Amino acid sequence: MLQIDNLRASVGGTPILNGLSLSVNAGEIHAIMGPNGAGKSTLAYVLGGRPGYEVTGGSVSFGGQDLLAMEPHERAAAGMFLGFQYPVEIPGVSNVQFLREALNAQRKARGQEPLSGGDFLKLAREKAGLLRLDMDMLKRNVNVGFSGGEKKRAEMVQMGILDPQFAVLDETDSGLDIDALKIVGEGINAIMRKPDKAVLLITHYQRLLDYVKPDKVHVLAAGRIVKTGGPELAHQLESEGYEAVAA
């Protein structure tokens, strides 16, 4: 589903990704772990098409298409979803309004009819229920006044509503307490653990992987994948640290 070959990228003229290669098949969940400054968030932003991240080499294929040639909204319409480490606040725009507009924009790009208000609310209630998020929260402005855990749960509701083929989740466990971590993990499984979907889960810690069992774990250091293993690799990293494992 996603094929990254020798990807190189810079931010402000500074090289961050240095020949990163990775392949993720449909039905798989891959975790990427690594120390601060390794390039994890840069990889997420490059895949999402965030401005300011310059690709200087390599290629990325998504569903047989050249991902790097697509604008961010085209990537989203093709089935790519990016979950942010720090979801932004949007004052004056309700979650319901934002999510309905986003969903119908993607449906239009795919040649589908827009969802009516009633059908959308039914869908939103279903997905909010998976994340145990009260519908009253979705009537509030996007992330305004939300706790860290509420922001992450609201973002997973967004993922459920948009129903992407591929999700890049950048440190979704950041800022979550124990209960919220379990809820978010269960939500990811319910929404994305399917034969036609895949997830690239970026995290510092093994704790989220107790709930979202990855097929593969990759260690990212100095802008490239330096080691790949199964779920046991995450436990090894937790106990021994990156330097010992990636050496």
From TrEMBL:
Is rRNA-binding a UniProt keyword of this protein?
no
Q: Which domain of life is it from?
A: Bacteria
Q: Which key words are in the record? A: ATP-binding, Nucleotide-binding
Q: Which InterPro entries match?
A: ABC_transporter-like_ATP-bd (IPR003439), FeS-cluster_ATPase_SufC (IPR010230), P-loop_NTPase (IPR027417)
**Keyword Ribonucleoprotein among record annotations:** no
Q: Name one GO molecular function term.
A: ATP hydrolysis activity
According to the entry, every stretch annotated as the ABC transporter domain falls at 2-247
Family of the protein in this entry: Belongs to the ABC transporter superfamily. Ycf16 family.
PANTHER family, per the entry: ABC TRANSPORTER I FAMILY MEMBER 6, CHLOROPLASTIC (PTHR43204)
Protein name according to UniProt = Fe-S cluster assembly ATPase SufC
The record lists the organism as Croceibacterium soli
- Its gene is sufC
